[in-house]
Each structure stands twice: as C-alpha cells, then as structure tokens.
Amino acid sequence: MPYSKEIGNLLLPPRIVEALKKAKLNTCKSVLTLSDLELSKQTKLSQRDVYAVKQAVSQEVLPRSFITAYKLQLPECPPDLVIRKLSSGCPMLDQFLRGGLLMRGVTEIAGESASGKTQFCLQLSLQAQLPEYIGGLNAAVAYICTEDSFPSKRLQQLIQGIKKNKPHEASKINFSDQIYISQIGDVESMWKCVKVTLPNLLRLKKVKLIIIDSVAALFRCEYDLNQIAQRAHDLQTLGHLLHKIALDFGAVVICINQVSAVVDQGGRSNVQEKIVPSLGLAWSNLVTTRVMLSRTSYVYKETTTQLKVYLPVRKLQVLYAPNLPPNHTYFVVTPDCVRGISLDENCS
Description:
This protein is an alpha/beta fold.
C-alpha cells in the first residue's frame, strides 16, 4: 500500500530523509498523521522543507491529479477508480441491484429467520470464485460463523447447481477448497479473528469476499443492560476494523444481521410492531449498504419435467445504498440456486 511506503524511497534530499528517520518517521502514514507544525517540531525542519516532505508524500499516496467523469466510463480508466461489483449469481437480481453488490464499505444483509440470508451468502461465496468477466472476483472466500455450524451439505447442493447452470466457467473450480471457514463463539475470539487471523489469511491467500454470519449473535448475548455504552464502543471498533480490511485488501465485506421487533406508537389506537435490523444506531451508522430479506405470503409454482414444486416467495429490499434507491424485488430459493422472480409469474 502507498501509505506504508518507506520515506527513504521518496525523492527527497538526504538531509531531509535523515531528519525524518531521526524523528522515527519512517513511512508515509507516519508523516500524514502530523500537522505541519508538529512535523516541524519533531524534525526541526524549516517550513519550506516540511512543505517539500508533504508534497512528496502526497504525490506518492495520490500519484494522479483529477480525472473527469467521462474518463471513468472508458476502458482505460485507472483500475483503482473502477467501481467494481460482485454479481449475485442471478441475472434478474443483478438487474435490480444494477450489476450486483458494491465492492466498497460494509454490506449488511438483515432478515428474520428462514428469510434466505445464509442461502444468499452461500451463493455469493460460489459466485466470488468465478471469473471477473461474468461478475465474479476470481478469488477465495473467508466465511466466519458465529451461530450455527457451516452448512456444508447445502453448499454442495449449490455447487452442483452452479456447475449445471455454468458448466464452462465452473468446471475447473474446486469451490469447497476455496472457502476458508472459522467458527467463533465469543467476542474475544472475534477480536482475535478480525485483528490477527483474518488479515494474515488475506496476506497469504487471494481472498476477496468476507462473510460474517452473523454479527448480531455475539453482541446480543454477551453484554448486560449496564454495558450498553461498552457494546456501542465495541461495535464501532468492529465496524472500523472491517472497513479498514475492505480498503487495505480490496475485499467485499458482508455482515449478516438478525432483526428485532420494536413498537411503533403512532397513537393510542394505532400501535404497530415494526421489524428493524438488530444492534441499533451504533451499528447502522457503520453500514454502507443495508439489504433486508423477509418472507412473504406468496407461493411460487415451479413446473419441472416430472412434477410441480411450490416454493415460498421471499422479498429482497434495499433500505439504503450509495448507488441504489430504496426499492424491493422478489426471489425464491430452489435446490440449485437463489433466483429472482416476478410476482406476475406463476405466483399465488
């Protein structure tokens, strides 16, 4: 990363480099965290020299000047400015998501039990391993389980489905061997994973998708009512660490979240129960994209060559995202995959 580049490699006079090293300012990051006055005091350099240091560091960290919006659309757009997305694995859902899930920040997939959260993330785990030209990342996956054990049997079903639906691209991929699983049972283990184990894995392996299933499980049960402030602080710490991992390693970070029921009192005679993602405002402010999955009363009739299958219809709703308006669509979970549907199509 440019931030970690050593000062000695920059185009600066030897006396300035020596002054920086004497002050133990050995990287670009250590210089950028100081104001001009602090830098001058620690290095005893003149104002002109400090300006030269800041210029050299800035050019190293941000080597290019401005780029026009038009150039962002061209094939020769710099790779680090291309807005990349991870396909959902379904053309209809990708159309709704305008290409897939944004590879920036932290994406939350919230929903009640049996709404399809884990099913959707398992499909993303397979899609991430496919080539980039069909919406994949050509990379491995880190899957962190905090509740149930990893659903290996269901994964094998989806693997057979993706090999059937995309035989050319999927035939040479050993999907199971590219999903690294960690089972975590308490907050302490989560800190060790996010601070040490996960970054080490990302340095050793080409992992570009990280899934935490789920983030609410640990933070709901390990804090008492008198520890609300501490829980909010720990959630913010976790969020910042995940954002840093996403930025440093160019990875997609997806957190599955549970939901809670809150009472919405519009008046004495108008008391309603509202379903919202868990963990409150402290966590909501750290999420870049929030998607909610839910069950519906609709049933989808799928006709195969031998029999008719009735599948529960589920709803995918974008609550907020930097690139999407609030909207919703519908999907079903089949033995082979998760795919979008239209309510006008075989639904009752």
